Amino acid sequence: MGRTGGNFSRKSWKEDEDVGFGRTRTRVKLESLEDAYILRGDDDSLSDKHGCPAYVSPEILNTSGSYSGKAADVWSLGVMLYTMLVGRYPFHDIEPSSLFSKIRRGQFNIPETLSPKAKCLIRSILRREPSERLTSQEILDHPWFSTDFSVSNSGYGAKEVSDQLVPDVNMEENLDPFFN
């Protein structure tokens, strides 16, 4: 989902296979789009159930038929945004059935440390009902994206720095709770 507004729906990103981090973990690189669909026209109906459990949307879990690929991608984007800003998944459980139950309920906590604009954006994306989620264009037009994130002398953005800080994680630590 880029600023071009192209019709592209992500079928699944498998963390171990498709998205990798550079040596310093400062760059994410997309290595494969083998599970991607190029959407032609307005029909974005999908019926497959592939995907990373932490990113799956409620409608994929609740339907036996088709669902909106764009709305499901918006949900996954919300999970990614939450994870980048908070440092953990919005829904997490070791047992897949418990994880899916949490996703179906759509209840999560947003830390008070996030800015009001960031909270609003996350809440507007992680809506249980697909028709209530922002579209990709509405996400790009959201006030959070109009925030001045220009780099200051400190290396952090001049405004709303808390939205840009990555949690301090010792790379030698066990990251299983984060990546599993």
UniProtKB/TrEMBL annotation:
<keyword id="KW-0963">Cytoplasm</keyword>
<comment type="similarity">
    <text>Belongs to the protein kinase superfamily. CAMK Ser/Thr protein kinase family. Tribbles subfamily.</text>
</comment>
<dbReference type="GO" id="GO:0004672">
    <property type="term" value="F:protein kinase activity"/>
</dbReference>
<dbReference type="GO" id="GO:0005524">
    <property type="term" value="F:ATP binding"/>
</dbReference>
<dbReference type="GO" id="GO:0031434">
    <property type="term" value="F:mitogen-activated protein kinase kinase binding"/>
</dbReference>
<dbReference type="Pfam" id="PF00069">
    <property type="entry name" value="Pkinase"/>
</dbReference>
<dbReference type="GO" id="GO:0005856">
    <property type="term" value="C:cytoskeleton"/>
</dbReference>
<dbReference type="InterPro" id="IPR024104">
    <property type="entry name" value="Tribbles/Ser_Thr_kinase_40"/>
</dbReference>
<dbReference type="GO" id="GO:0032436">
    <property type="term" value="P:positive regulation of proteasomal ubiquitin-dependent protein catabolic process"/>
</dbReference>
<feature type="domain" description="Protein kinase">
    <location>
        <begin position="1"/>
        <end position="145"/>
    </location>
</feature>
<comment type="function">
    <text>Interacts with MAPK kinases and regulates activation of MAP kinases. Does not display kinase activity.</text>
</comment>
<keyword id="KW-0206">Cytoskeleton</keyword>
<keyword id="KW-0649">Protein kinase inhibitor</keyword>
<dbReference type="InterPro" id="IPR000719">
    <property type="entry name" value="Prot_kinase_dom"/>
</dbReference>
<dbReference type="InterPro" id="IPR011009">
    <property type="entry name" value="Kinase-like_dom_sf"/>
</dbReference>
<dbReference type="GO" id="GO:0005634">
    <property type="term" value="C:nucleus"/>
</dbReference>
<protein>
    <recommendedName>
        <fullName>Tribbles homolog 2</fullName>
    </recommendedName>
</protein>
<dbReference type="GO" id="GO:0004860">
    <property type="term" value="F:protein kinase inhibitor activity"/>
</dbReference>
